Amino acid sequence: MKELIEKLRAKAIEELASSDDIEALRIKYLGKKGELTALLRGMGSVSPEERPKIGQMVNEMREYLEQAIDKKKTELAEAALEAKLAAQTLDVTVPGKEIPVGRRHPLAQTERTMRDVFVGLGFTVAEGPEVEYDYYNFEALNLPKNHPARDTQDTFYITDNILLRSQTSPVQVRVMENKKPPIRIISPGRVYRADPADASHSPIFHQLEGLCVDKGITMSDLKGVLELFAKRMFGENTRVRFRPHHFPFTEPSAEVDVSCFVCGGKGCRLCKGEGWIEILGAGMVHPFVLSNCGIDPEEYSGFAFGVGIERVAMITLGIDDMRLLYENDERFLSQF
Ligand code: PHE
User: Fold this and answer.
1) CATH number, residue 178
2) Does ligand 1 lie within 6 Å of residue 305's CB atom?
3) At what angle do helices 309-317 and 219-234 cross, to 10 degrees?
4) Cα-to-centroid distance, 310 and ligand 1 (Å)
5) CA 194 to CA 201: how far, in whole Å?
6) Is residue 98 part of a domain?
7) 261 lines ligand 1 (CB under 6 A)
8) Together in a domain, 173 and 242
9) Which residue is closest in CA terms to ligand 1's atom 2?
10) Nearest-CA neighbor of 279 among 308, 253, 236, 252?
11) CB contact at 8 A, 257 and 275
């Protein structure tokens, strides 16, 4: 009997060490139909003197097995927990995944800055169609058919009378047709010309038109507004220069330069040694245009200007090739 107990014990220890199915082992040894119970049933064949001794041994063995099984259970549970923890490690010091954030295109940034200056002066934003009638783009602006100045603004025609606007100036006409003075609007937008693309030309580009009509508006109002605009865009020390020019829809007309904000006027690479950079066309609204729109030129006067947005973006951001603005190359765009 003693040997049987020892044998069973050795077998149990061995199985316990090699098996992970603890519950099966517990049933096998300690269960009601288990090996230990079977052993106790065999007590009948043990002599009365030996019975207490054997009984004690069996109890000891039961206790031993119970403890060993508990211990193994705890060990397995701990190992499982450890494995789980190792698999689910969360390193809070690992840098997060970068979420790319977009930003405004440099042209849109420039347009916004320009717009903000004029909105701050009380101008509101007006819009006009990009597919425009010849009448608004040319005729009403004192550019009749066959006028030679049309050559400089050759554009794309849909029909003889419908075209892609070559300037934002037609918005002037549309606004004046619909609203009586006082008028103070700007109109940023896309314009088209039949120019092949190169470093400084593009068949599609952008302008910002300005128009102010009221009683007693003079050239000095135009100068004041454009001077303030120039200082806001290019720095407080910027000076403005008006050069006589000709536009059919303004009289007098001027091309407007700003003093170079890189060299301050001494001459450098940006201003090509000139000290001045041309940024826009402007003038007093031609009486012909006012009366075309039903505004009496005897009663009212106004000024208008048109700025190239690409031009302003390129000189303020230091971009030397216009085509870069349209290529949507993220390596370029992310610099601004
Ligand atoms: N529309 C003119 C151009 O594209 C610019 C301009 C606008 C000139 C308003 C005078 C007044 O060249």
Assistant:
1) 3.30.930.10
2) yes
3) 40
4) 15
5) 10
6) no
7) no
8) yes
9) 306
10) 308
11) no
Structure tokens at 232: 């806001």
- Reported as half-sphere exposure (CB side, CA atoms, 13 A), residue 272 has a value of 4
pLDDT digit string, tens, across residues 82-119? 888 888 888 889 898 999 889 999 999 999 999 999 99
111 and 9 belong to one structural domain: no
Q: Are 39 and 4 in contact (CB under 8 A)?
A: yes
> What is the percent of the chain where pLDDT is above 90?
67
Same domain, 281 and 141: yes
> Number of structural domains, the chain?
2
Report CA-CA distances (Å) from 160 to 150, 166, 174, 299, 332: 14, 15, 20, 35, 40
Domain range spanning residue 126? 106-333
Question: What's the gap in Å between 250 CA and the centre of ligand 1?
Answer: 8
Inter-residue contact 117 to 229 (CB < 8 Å): yes
CA 172 / ligand 1 centre spacing (Å): 11
pTM as predicted: 0.73
> DSSP letter string over 281-333?
EEEEEPHHHHHHTT--TTT-EEEEEEEEHHHHHHHHHT---GGGGGS--HHHH
218 CA → ligand 1 middle, Å: 18
Q: Which atom of ligand 1 is nearest to the CA of 285?
A: 11
- Chain segment 280-304, per-residue pLDDT in tens: 999 999 999 999 999 999 999 999 9
Strand partners, 259: 276
Q: Could you tell me which of 190, 249, 188, 250 has the C-alpha nearest to residue 222?
A: 250
Q: Are residues 164 and 258 located together in one domain of the fold?
A: yes
**Position 96 in a domain:** no
Are 168 and 209 a contacting pair, CB within 8 Å?
Answer: yes
